[in-house]
Design brief:
The chain has 639 residues and is of the alpha+beta class. Strands 3, 4, 5, 6, 7, 8, 9 and 10 form an eight-stranded antiparallel beta sheet that branches. Strands 1-2 form a two-stranded antiparallel ribbon. Helix 1 packs across helix 11 and helix 22 crosses helix 23. The chain is elongated. The termini are far apart.
Length: 639
């Protein structure tokens, strides 16, 4: 025979109460308990017992049992074994209930016999044990088929006799037909669907669930609605699912209200109405449903169906997290990390995100990945772990995760670089309405990273993001316009130029026809030497490579005594987002170093270095540099 607590938990699931959908409660108002919320009574009772207010705690437990026999009794048994209440006081507390049940059973009241059997089975206020419980359950079943569930549970687990699956299922069916929707029909449906006590029979399980819903079990209506909404075992019918959710919500099931609210949010089977969603979520949240509070907080956060109110959103997230909603904890964690409408507490925020992700909440994992990637003060950056969190969250449908992971792929941050795949994810996030991703996609089109370079498309995307409130996109849209103009001008210039490919393969220069420059040879690896016989000028070009110090004096080494001048052109460039040139004069030569910032998430590169001198050893004059300007403009096309 299983341990008492183990048996009790199983009985709750199969025969004596509580839906499989139910979740532990958080701290709810006592008023919710008085309005009929069993969940609220459980939590209020725990609170009172933790505070050593035994009499009030036991009163609330008895109230919970009246509202939901199975779950209430399970909670009673759990608390009794935990030692939260003095053993003597605990036994004494159940004596009057046992006496009342015994008196009612002797008077022929079936449900009193059912209660007596449960008390006997677990030794609460009355002797009898499993054998006495079996006798009380048999009497209850003989008086009223509605009460046959007690004996069915004993058959299910082999208590006071061998396990007998067919007999248990027959008794659950008998109770269901007699109108015991919660403990009869629900247990019957679960047994037939599980295929443990008898052969699996999906059709019969569905019929039992429908009977339960008709009989007033709101959890059965929710379960039926879920199957229709998801197309499980029946054709997908979101409109009918919404009707069932409404029935469950009207029957007092908070989960039914949450499901119906989400249908109103999406306009699935009902008219899209965020205001109605808020009206449904409010009472469900008051009754302590964590998911309802989480969704309600999101409406306040985004101003959907209600005035935007970040503080009200955080308050709802706090209640949601207290109600064991992993999503609510994730949203609260994000608020604490950012300090939005609450005191900033990065450590606590990250802990909440870790807890949410551990509970397999995809939003929690996605938000945790973003925090690890952005690494605000107090958080160690971990791009590799961020990728392992963001990728599955994206695959699970979290739009923000797709946008952020797409940027990771483009940059190769924590993952192997794959600009094309990153662009696909960013594009998908943009299509789902993520404004930042539309701006990122515009940048990719402007740069030609992962997608074809398309300034017109970039401009359209920037303008789209700008209209949605993305300020940086507004500025970029104007720049793209200048880029298109510059690109047309460059095309006209190319029509009057010729191509000069350098031996090193680093550069292909486009010079005006009749430029007078000729190739000499490659002086060393990565260097090219060009000669202008008419002026005796020589230019040596070299590709330096990537530099993580950004564009600044550290981007190149200037020799001692050198005079360094910085040139910067503020206008938009057709090839670069930002460019700096450092002019260094030393020992009869002039050196130019070009540092480029490609404008995409601060990636910098020193791309070219050029040294200009005369063959006769004299220092280049201003006129000489003017002569060299034709070549230098080809080396530095953006300046």
């Amino acid at each position: 025979m299983r341990g008492r607590l183990g048996v009790l938990v199983a009985l709750v699931t199969v025969g004596w109460g509580g839906g499989a959908e139910a979740k532990p409660a958080g701290k709810w108002p006592d008023a919710a308990c008085e309005r009929g919320s069993a969940f609220a009574c459980f939590e209020a009772a725990r609170r009172e017992l933790d505070g050593k207010r035994t009499d009030e705690g036991l009163r609330l437990l008895w109230r919970a049992w009246e509202l939901d026999e199975g779950r209430g009794f399970a909670t009673v048994q759990e608390l009794g074994q935990s030692g939260a209440v003095d053993a003597g006081a605990w036994a004494k507390a159940w004596t009057p209930h046992a006496a009342a049940a015994q008196k009612g059973c002797e008077a022929g009241q079936a449900r009193a016999c059912l209660s007596l059997g449960k008390l006997q089975l677990f030794g609460l206020g009355v002797a009898g044990g499993p054998e006495g419980a079996a006798a009380s359950f048999d009497k209850a079943c003989g008086l009223d088929a509605w009460a046959c569930t007690g004996r069915a549970v004993l058959h299910t687990f082999g208590i006071a006799g061998p396990t007998d699956g067919p007999a248990a299922v027959a008794l659950y069916g008998k109770a269901c037909k007699a109108g015991n929707a919660v403990h009869g029909c629900r247990a019957l449906a679960q047994a037939l669907r599980a295929g443990v006590l008898v052969a699996r029979d999906e059709a019969a399980a569905h019929e039992a669930q429908e009977a339960g819903c008709r009989g007033g079990d709101p959890a059965a209506c929710v379960a039926l609605g879920d199957r229709l909404a998801g197309g499980q075992g029946a054709a997908r019918d979101v409109a009918k699912a919404a009707v069932l959710y409404r029935q469950a919500c009207d029957g007092g099931d908070p989960l039914g209200c949450v499901r119906l609210a989400r249908h109103h949010q999406a306009g699935a089977g009902v008219a899209q109405d965020h205001g109605q969603a808020v009206r449904l979520l409010g009472p469900a949240c008051e009754l302590g449903d964590g998911e309802a509070c989480s969704d309600l907080g999101l409406h306040h956060d985004l101003g959907l169906g209600v005035k935007q109110d970040p503080k009200a959103a955080v308050a709802a997230y706090e209640r949601a997290c207290a109600g064991r909603s992993a999503t609510g904890c994730a949203r609260l964690g994000a608020a604490k990390v950012s300090g939005t409408a609450t005191a900033r507490d990065v450590r606590k925020g990250v802990a909440l995100l870790e807890e949410s992700c551990k509970a397999r909440d995809v939003l929690g994992c996605a938000l945790l990945g973003q925090v690890l990637l952005e690494a605000p003060e107090g958080v160690t950056k971990d791009a590799a772990r961020a990728a392992t969190l963001l990728k599955p969250a994206c695959e699970a449908g979290v739009t923000d995760a797709c946008g952020v992971h797409g940027v990771q792929l483009v940059k190769g941050e924590g993952v192997a670089a794959n600009a094309a795949e990153g662009a696909k994810l960013i594009g998908a996030a943009c299509a789902q309405g993520r404004v930042a991703s539309c701006s990122d996609l515009a940048t990719l089109h402007a740069l030609g990273k992962g997608v074809a370079r398309d300034y017109a498309r970039a401009k359209a995307l920037y303008e789209q993001a700008c209209k949605a409130g993305h300020q940086q996109a507004c500025e970029s849209a104007a720049r793209v316009e200048a880029t298109q103009t510059a690109a047309r001008a460059a095309a006209e210039r190319r029509a009057n130029t010729e191509t000069l490919r350098l031996p090193s393969g680093r550069l292909t220069l486009r010079l005006p026809k009749g430029h007078g420059w000729s190739l000499a040879h490659a002086e060393a690896a990565g260097q090219d030497r060009l000669h202008h016989p008419a002026s005796q000028l020589v230019v040596v070009l070299e590709h330096v490579g990537r530099n993580s110090d950004m564009c600044g004096p550290k981007a190149f080494a200037a020799p001692p005594g050198a005079q360094v001048k910085q040139h910067r052109r503020p206008a938009w460039r057709p090839r670069n987002w930002d460019s700096l040139v450092f002019e260094t004069r030393v020992k009869g030569a002039v050196a130019f170093t070009l540092c480029q910032d490609d404008g995409f998430w601060d990636v910098s590169e020193v791309v070219r270095w050029a040294r200009v001198f005369r063959q006769d050893g004299r220092a280049p004059t201003a006129a000489d540099l003017e002569q060299a300007k034709v070549l230098l403009e080809a080396v530095y096309p953006d300046l």
